[in-house]
Amino acid sequence: MNNRIKDLQDAIEPVRQQIINHKVYTAIKSLEDLKIFMEYHVYAVWDFMSLLKSLQNGLTCTSVPWFPKGSADTRHLINEIVVGEESDVDEHGRRISHFELYLEAMKQCGADTSKIEAFIAHLEKNNNLKEAFHFARVPAEAQQFVQFTFDTIESSKDYLQAAVFTFGREDLIPAMFLSIIKEIHNDFPEEVSIFKYYIERHIEVDGDHHSNLALQMTEHLCGDDELNWREAQAMSVKSLEHRIGLWNGIYKRLIEKEEPVSGA
Prior knowledge:
mainly alpha
């Protein structure tokens, strides 16, 4: 492994462990809890796709006429990840993006998809992120998470986008969470089968093959520039901190749900 990659991984590991050991996972005890989790987390699934496509736009030629752009190695790496994320397969072998699969999982278990759908529809029509947040009444923690992602995109620095994609977004699902999902699935197999598949598929594809591709991509883009690596580390930490903020918001919502009504 490249020493710079290892140094970056070592630097972000304390923050990464805070996510892996976050109390939000153990707070998910029922199907209703899982619905709340998904209604927040879906924004991270969506903006992950936006970050991915921004990388593809920056590292490859996506316009006509076509011209060779950048390194063929990085073109290969990002295009392979895009294929897997944008046109994977569901449990029946049908082609689908991971975001669309997540929406199907939400609908199967009865989670509310109206806010994320309203957010996307408004954004597609008006191309104004803050207006879309307000229109769809997106939870504050999800707003902050998505805003950071788009600030990263708007930096137009491919190596920073790659670092956030690689170290801030991939390989963050602990085994404990999968165990919790399996337990809920045992009780509600008809409501949770798609989400269980999504999580298992995410671990299989994103946590292994895509993570390795993303590491190679970040290494290519940061190169031998010391400043690039320092900025990549700082942005990776910020990305993980925003994930903690999102998890804190979900945890707070789950705890509030359990609190007894005053005077009852």
